Amino acid sequence: MPYHTDQRSVLTLDAGGTNFVFSAIKSGEEVIQPINISAKGEKLDDVLQKIIMGFKQSMEQLGKKPAAISFSFPGPADYENGIIGNLENLPAFRGGVALGPMLEEIFQLPVFINNDGDLFAYGEAIAGLLPEINNKLKNSSSPKQYKNLLGVTFGTGFGGGIVRKGELFLGDNSAQGEINRFCNPHNIAYSVEEHISIRGLRRLFAQEAGMAFKDCPDPYEIFMIAKNTEDKLHISAQKAFQEFALIAGNALADAVSLVDGLVVIGGGLSGAHSVFLNHLVAEMNRAYETTDNGCFDRMEVTAFNLEDDADLSLFIKGKPHEIAVPYSDKKLIYDPLKRIGVGISRLGTSKAVSIGAYAFALNAIDHKK
Question: In this model, does residue 73 exceed pLDDT 70?
């Protein structure tokens, strides 16, 4: 469905541990001035009243009844039934809170809640990296088209979502795409999120630079140090990003072996891709050794860096050639290069989540008709 021309409106919410940001989307674009409300509240009733007030103010700004409410909310949760579980960042939520059903009762609208990593992936699949790459392939007369996408975010945490043939993949326990739970090759007692996150990058840099974690600069400053060859901590910053890339590439290689689709990276740390993405893709393509001193590819597919012009050109071109159909005069084009691409968010993480929430709601409504 062409969501960018759909005239229906959907109320959205970006729910963080500090602030709730309410908005409304129509035709894939924000159509009201966002409303920012503090998320803090010791009592559950305080937080719920803020959410109700935010959506009421959004609807007043919109000036008409929307088609739905759709937003991301932290987990653990039973997203399908709109029930939020015990949250670390919002401690007022304990024991299961039926947030979705409550909003449906108050506003008499369908309400959809999902994880931000899932909605990020869905937004990029609908209006971001996936259609962009497919258009490039089409314009180059390549028969190759991609239908599957793994979306991951590098930020406060390490999140993920999967889109399969145009549909957001939903697990049986609202626990799909939880890539942050992968084992950390640095220390199997930790999850990968202990390194693939803002705190993880800062910890890696602190170790390389020989400084206390509390004295470590923020990721943007580490990124600038990594780019500045005159800075005395340049090598330490480079090594921190390389180690970050190795761990992230290891996790993505495992995930891609199940998804077999393009990979899009978002989140605050994605802006530093110029210093880590080549290392990440190289790790994904690293070969395994065998006990008889041989080796074989880690993945059945080859990963390409879609932000590198040379890599992108090879990815688009592939290795197509003509083969004959046995016992026939027919010939076919065969491309033996099994490949996936790894690129950076085309929409920006926040916008991708909003578009994902918007499209998910309309898609769900249309499927019910």
Answer: yes
139: amino acid identity, one letter: N
Buried b (16+ CB within 10 A) or exposed e, 28-66: beeebeebebebebeeeeebbebbeebbeebbebbeeeb
Using only C-alpha atoms, the chain has a radius of gyration, in whole angstroms, of 22
* pLDDT for residue 1 is more than 70: no
User: Which helix (H) or strand (E) covers residue 125, if one does?
Assistant: helix 116-127
Q: Which helix (H) or strand (E) element contains residue 117?
A: helix 116-127
Q: Hey, what are 334's tokens?
A: 């065969």
Per-residue model confidence as pLDDT tens digits over 280-300: 999 999 999 999 999 989 999
Query: Would you mind telling me the total number of residues written for the chain in this entry?
Result: 369
Instruction: Please answer whether residues 359 and 121 qualify as being in contact, where contact means their C-beta atoms are separated by less than 8 angstroms.
Output: no
Average pLDDT over residues 207-220: 96
Q: Which two tokens stand for residue 71?
A: 């937003």
pLDDT (tens digit per residue) in 296-318? 899 999 999 999 999 999 999 99
Tell me the residue type at 30: E
* Secondary structure E strands in 68-115: 68-72, 77-78, 83-84, 111-114
* CA 360, 363, 366, 367 torsion-angle sign: negative
